[in-house]
Write a structure and sequence with these properties.
Distance between the termini: 74 Å
CATH superfamily of the largest domain: Catalase core domain
Helix content: 25-40%
Radius of gyration: 30 Å
């Protein structure tokens, strides 16, 4: 065995950074037993035992690549999304393709729906377009989603894929017929990931600078042309190469044959939605192109392979809840459920701070009040406060200019209503205070002053305003216990009140 010359390659170290002199087990004599003090061997074995994370419940096997998205058409009349703000603007992306039903060891060329999950690293945060290669899905009610996936997995008794389970479910759910027809059509087995379309499937909303909302669907049309496999060709391919789609995608990008898709949208106004003959938010239905023609937005190109599959593809995490200003959800029931379930799955599978991994992290500055959990770092949060509302200097604050317009759904208005408006928060507290005798009131004021006195002076002034609103005597007693000059209080309190 040839040993590299010292200084020609990096020094091997433990995870803690200590140099490793020799990569052989530490034993008591050449034929003796191992020693527990061989910490570098123990570290290697312990790390190996934990190399795998739980596979995705669906979309377990996938391939991914980085690329760029370039705007080719002005759509600012529909959306204020900054990354779509001008023709020629480019945005970095990461795209993960996948099979849906099979486990991580499934063959790429099986008859199955394909996932098409796209992450845009925009200047206003990440937008995840989490779709498939079909424009519809099997069910429209989120209560049926988990049940459907169970039918695509293994029978609990035999641990085998079971056609009776699948068709029992589909025969009881006629809304599945559209997707079943696509799945068993000639497009049911894509020849590779490059030669298939991607769809957002759900209905989403677009909002422009004027606060006007339209409904939309997302389409990614392959520029390579649709290519599919017959059942016989797929069986032969699986027999020789179970990783055919992965191999094709990686090889094409490696050779400079960068695949591209044309990104288009369909637009529907609220007036059109109200008059449409089907529920426009039904995931099992499409919008006819003749009535709602495709509008080109831009070009997606994949041009860089990941360096490490586990770090960048296996741990990549996509969620429909990753939205940016100008792109929002709709009343689609399945989408509403996915807004919660996907991010929750990532926190279980990858970890509470999965969004801090490089492949998932926004490329723009971000600040929030989420804290701690596995793999939290001081670099993520520093000494910033972990609660809101607060009056700490430099703390992140909401931006009212980013507020989306309200929805009107039938007779119901959907909005972020201010819970502090039109509420009396002081009368009942004052009534309770007035029920106390004089000694009780004094004890209350003493206790409050003991803890409130440890807060900043401006915080004391703000809280005293609340006591005074409940009852003047209540405020006066606490102020005196705090040695608060009432003239100082009125000035500070008025200033604080004016900022509310």
């Amino acid at each position: 065995m040839t040993t590299p010359k010292p200084g020609t390659c990096p020094v091997l170290t433990t995870a803690d950074g200590a140099p490793i002199a020799r990569q052989q087990a530490l034993t008591a004599g050449p034929r003796g037993p191992l020693l527990m003090q061989d910490v570098q061997l123990l570290e290697q074995m312990q790390s190996f035992n934990r190399e795998r994370i739980p596979e995705r419940v669906v979309h377990a096997k996938g391939s991914g690549a980085y690329g760029t998205f370039t705007v080719t058409n002005d759509v600012t009349k529909y959306t204020k999304a900054a990354f779509l703000g001008r023709v020629g603007k480019t945005t970095d992306v990461f795209l993960r393709f996948s099979t849906v039903a099979g486990e991580r060891g499934a063959a790429d060329a099986e008859r199955d729906v394909r996932g098409f999950a796209l992450k845009f690293y925009t200047e206003e945060g990440n937008w995840d377009m989490v779709g498939n290669n079909t424009p519809v899905f099997f069910v429209r009610d989120p209560y049926k989603f988990q049940m459907f996936i169970h039918t695509q997995k293994r029978d609990p008794a035999t641990n085998l894929r079971d056609m009776d389970m699948q068709w029992d479910f589909w025969s009881l759910c006629p809304e599945s017929l559209h997707q079943v027809t696509i799945l068993f059509s000639d497009r049911g087995i894509p020849a590779n990931y490059r030669s298939m379309n991607g769809y957002g499937s759900h209905t989403y909303s677009l909002i422009n600078d004027a606060g006007e909302r339209v409904w939309c669907k997302f389409h990614f049309k392959t520029k390579q042309g649709i290519a599919t496999l017959t059942d016989e060709a797929a069986a032969a391919l699986i027999g020789s190469d179970r990783e055919s789609h992965q191999r094709d995608l990686h090889g094409a990008i490696e050779s400079g044959d960068f695949p591209q898709w044309r990104f288009c949208i369909q637009i529907m106004t609220q007036k059109q939605a109200d008059a449409f003959r089907w529920n426009p938010f039904d995931l099992t239905k499409v919008w006819p192109h003749a009535e709602f023609p495709l509008i080109e937005v831009g070009t997606l190109e994949l041009n860089r392979n990941p360096e490490n599959y586990h770090a960048e593809v296996e741990q990549s995490s996509f969620s429909p809840s990753a939205l940016v200003p100008g792109i929002g959800p709709s009343p689609d029931k399945m989408l509403q459920a996915r807004l919660m379930s996907y991010a929750d799955a990532h926190r279980y599978r990858v970890g509470a701070n999965y969004q801090h991994l490089p492949v998932n992290a926004p490329r723009c500055p971000f600040a929030n009040y989420q804290r701690d959990g596995a793999m939290a770092t001081a670099a993520s949060y520093g000494s910033a406060p972990n609660y809101w509302p607060n009056s700490r200097e430099g703390a992140p604050m909401p931006d009212e200019s980013r507020l989306d317009p309200a929805w009107t759904l039938g007779q119901t208005v959907v909005d972020r209503f201010d819970s502090t408006v039109d509420h009396d928060d002081f009368t009942q507290a004052g009534d309770l205070y007035r029920m106390f005798d004089d000694a009780h009131r004094d004890r209350l004021a003493t206790r409050l002053a003991g803890v409130l006195g440890q807060a900043r002076r401006e915080v004391q002034a703000r809280q005293l305003c609340h006591f005074f609103r409940a009852d003047p005597d209540y405020g006066r007693r606490v102020a005196e216990k705090l040695d608060f000059d009432l003239s100082e209080f009125h000035e500070s309190g008025a200033a604080v009140a004016a900022t509310r």
